[in-house]
Design a protein that fits this description.
three-stranded antiparallel beta sheet; 85 residues; alpha+beta; single chain
């Protein structure tokens, strides 16, 4: 997670989720949901805790889809896009 401050991207938090290690890689629960690992700033936690941490710095209710596979932006291009919002 980054914050745009005076035209500069400043890191504020790091969140990761997914099959981050072999202990859960490719595994699913009884409802066929993937068994993911959640980390926030290097600390492993449950999904609900992760979502709380994410919402503490980013209002997920207002988020818009912004990820398109194979569509990458340079830092300058991303800053320009964010300034237009």
């Amino acid at each position: 997670m980054y914050s745009l401050e005076d035209g500069i991207l400043a890191p504020i938090a790091t969140g990761l989720w997914g099959w981050l290690d072999e202990s859960v890689y490719g595994r699913f629960d009884e409802s066929e949901n993937p068994l993911y690992v959640y980390e926030w700033n290097g600390v492993r936690m449950e999904q609900a805790e992760y979502e709380n941490e994410l919402n503490s710095v980013y209002d997920t209710l207002k988020m818009q889809q912004g990820y398109v596979w194979d569509e990458w932006y340079t830092e300058d291009e991303m800053i320009e896009l964010l300034q237009k919002m």
